[in-house]
Amino acid sequence: MPYTKVMQQLKENLQVAYRQAIDSDNRLDELRKAGHGKFVAIFNEEQGFTQKSNRFLPYVQELATEFETMQESVHTAPETLEAFVKKLAILLQTLQAFKLQSK
Q: The organism sits in which domain of life (predicted)?
């Protein structure tokens, strides 16, 4: 695969997203117990995700599945890689914003 270094960086960022998603989902549980967080989904279709969840982990799992598919592919189209990077960036930005706002 010609994107070896890129794929390694994406994998590392996906691991960061996973760890942050676990922490954020725990915080969401606390907020729900306090009567907050009454929303259906974190992301919508325009943001590229097929998942509909009020937790972060399912979105990370969706990206992990896509990442595995890209790794197994002999040739990953630049458009596929670009779409993945955009979704990962949106996820990481949202996780960071949630972390800062929920302190």
A: Bacteria
